[in-house]
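The pair is quoted verbatim as follows:
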Amino acid sequence: MDKPKTSVEPKTKAERDGGVQVVPREYAGKWVAWSSDGRRIVAVGESFDDCGRAVVAAGFAADRVAIGKIPVLRGAGGDVQRPRRV
């Protein structure tokens, strides 16, 4: 029996993980608003209020997004890094 053919294009990590968007490093320490399905960032701000205003400016209702602050993880040189397992 032949094996089924796989897709020619390799899937990205986001596609393998169910389509969840990876948070860019430059958003560390900022407030972000996620779409109602949690799959994409729709607004970014320096404060909760700034993010809320950006949500409205982007055309989303405030009760249809989730807003949260992205933590800053510091390593050598202040770069954002993945947490290490202990």
